[in-house]
Specification:
Layout (H helix, E strand, L loop, with lengths): L6 H18 L3 H7 L4 H10 L17 H14 L1 H21 L2 H12 L5 E4 L15 E5 L2 E12 L5 E9 L5 E9 L5 E3 L13 E11 L4 E2 L10 H32 L1 E2 L2 E2 L4 H29 L7 H22 L2 H5 L6 H10 L6 H14 L15
Parallel strand pairs: 1-4, 2-4
Antiparallel strand pairs: 2-3, 3-7, 4-5, 5-8, 6-7, 9-10
Helix pairs in contact: 1-4, 4-5, 4-7, 5-6, 5-7, 7-8, 7-9, 7-11, 8-9, 9-11, 9-12
Bound molecules: flavin-adenine dinucleotide.
The site of flavin-adenine dinucleotide has 24 residues, from β1, β3 and α12.
Length: 393
């Protein structure tokens, strides 16, 4: 499969395999248990160029395509889906949003620092009223003299060691018109606070938690794109990110599969190899078939995306279908480990927990199925039906 990959893509995949095995795998259980990615690994990821992989060379990155991004993220997720999860935000979603919305000055200021890992970004949209229910969001940007002030709070922001925040919020311009914008808020700004975050089930390589914005002053150079539409007008960044996200789900399930296959070959039950129990060997075969189907789905769409030819809603198809399938696979394969799989020491139950987190982060599967249904029924790949207003992500 993937015999169409070019030389650069193959070389990058080989480097990612070696990076994942040498640098990520030995720390994967520690990341899950301690609920943070060690600084040493963040530094090695920066050195390897991971944060700038999808950033154009003129802004300090290596300008890889989304196929390459998916290959790299998949390999890292095989070792640690939790670490790969935060990576997609910092490698794809945030820099691409800045690339699409930013002025030349903003791109020169933000992207090289993000690509080098010196100043990583976070993406913050979710609020207690519902992540995509933007009509009910309370965080607002209002004019303040010759600048602006933002006030409110956000939830579930995947931050890791981010220092710059892209905050999606309601906006009102100096003429009184209202919209939904994308605002850059720096961690050092007066009134900005990272609030305590909770322990979570999966994706423990990063902290995901609330931020508070208490009347934070924003200058004009902190507005990304049009103040009234920036929050909606970076769809290509969201589409690229859901593909990268699907790659983390695929890597997660493949990592679980690889470890389970090794285990099953060794495990003796009733004096025979465990694989001789027919239902269990069928589970492996079924998981293998599903992984092959998911891989074909993902990479054909990633290739289409790189050629500006991805069909509407196919990003959502990849995100929801591969995410849900990965969870099913991890859950079933965990069963084959018996009690040992439930114990943390075997280092496999984290795959099932990470796979579940991935079915919710970056839009719950059902949200993506709504987008697909709206494309099928109304010809619009959107969370909102044409007749609705303000409910679009
Ligand atoms: C690990 C993790 C990391 C995250 N990181 C970030 C981040 O960095 N930035 C950020 O802004 N957010 C982030 N989120 C939030 C994430 O995007 C939301 O949790 C997700 O979109 C679901 O929204 P919600 O939690 O508000 O659930 P709700 O909106 O309350 O929805 C609850 C459930 O209702 C169903 N549902 C909701 N809307 C629809 C719909 N339109 N159609 C069909 N069914 C629907 C779904 O089953 C959904 O799970 C993260 C979440 C997790 C778990």
């Amino acid at each position: 499969m993937l015999d169409w990959l070019n030389e650069d893509q193959r070389a990058l995949r080989d480097m990612a395999i070696s990076f994942a095995q040498k640098e990520v795998e030995p720390l994967a259980n520690q990341i899950d248990i301690e609920e943070r990615t060690p600084d040493s690994l963040i530094a090695k990821a920066a050195e390897f160029g991971l944060f700038g992989l999808y950033t154009p060379p003129e802004y300090g990155g290596s300008g890889a395509d989304i196929v390459s991004v998916c290959l790299v993220v998949e390999e890292i997720a095989k070792a640690s889906p939790a670490f790969a999860g935060a990576l997609t935000v910092q490698m794809v979603l945030c820099p691409k949003t800045v690339e699409i919305l930013g002025t030349e000055e903003q791109k020169q200021r933000l992207l090289p620092l993000s690509a080098s890992g010196e100043r990583l970004m976070a993406y913050s949209q979710s609020e207690p009223a519902g992540a995509a229910n933007v009509a009910s969001h309370l965080t607002k940007l209002e004019p303040d003299g010759d600048g602006w002030r933002i006030d409110g709070s956000k939830l579930f922001c995947t931050q890791s060691v981010a220092k710059s925040y892209l905050v999606m919020c309601k906006t009102r311009n100096h003429e009184g018109q209202v919209g939904y914008g994308c605002i850059l808020v720096e961690q050092e700004a007066e009134g900005f606070e990272v609030l305590p975050y909770e322990h979570k089930l999966g994706w423990r390589g990063t902290n995901t938690g609330p931020i508070s914005l208490n009347n934070v002053r924003i200058e004009n150079d902190g507005i990304l794109g049009d103040v009234l539409t920036g929050g909606f007008s970076h769809r290509a960044a969201n589409h690229a990110n859901v593909l990268a996200h699907a790659a983390t789900s695929l890597g997660c399930a493949q990592g679980m599969f690889d470890k389970t296959l090794e285990y099953v070959k060794e495990r003796q039950l009733y004096g025979k190899g465990m694989y001789e129990l027919q239902p269990l060997s069928y589970w492996l075969a079924e998981a293998h078939a599903k992984l092959a189907a998911c891989r074909a789905l993902l990479y054909s769409n990633a290739r289409a995306f790189d050629n500006d030819a991805m069909e509407p809603a196919m990003g959502s198809v990849c995100k929801a279908y591969i995410g849900d399938t990965a969870f099913e696979i991890c859950s079933k394969l965990l069963q084959m480990w018996g009690g040992s799989g439930i114990m943390d020491s075997t280092g496999v139950n984290r795959y099932m927990r990470d796979a579940k987190a991935k079915c919710i982060a970056e839009g719950a599967s059902e949200m993506h199925y709504t987008i697909i249904a709206n494309q099928l029924l109304h010809g619009v790949p959107s969370l909102a039906r044409p007749a609705d207003s303000g409910a679009e992500k």
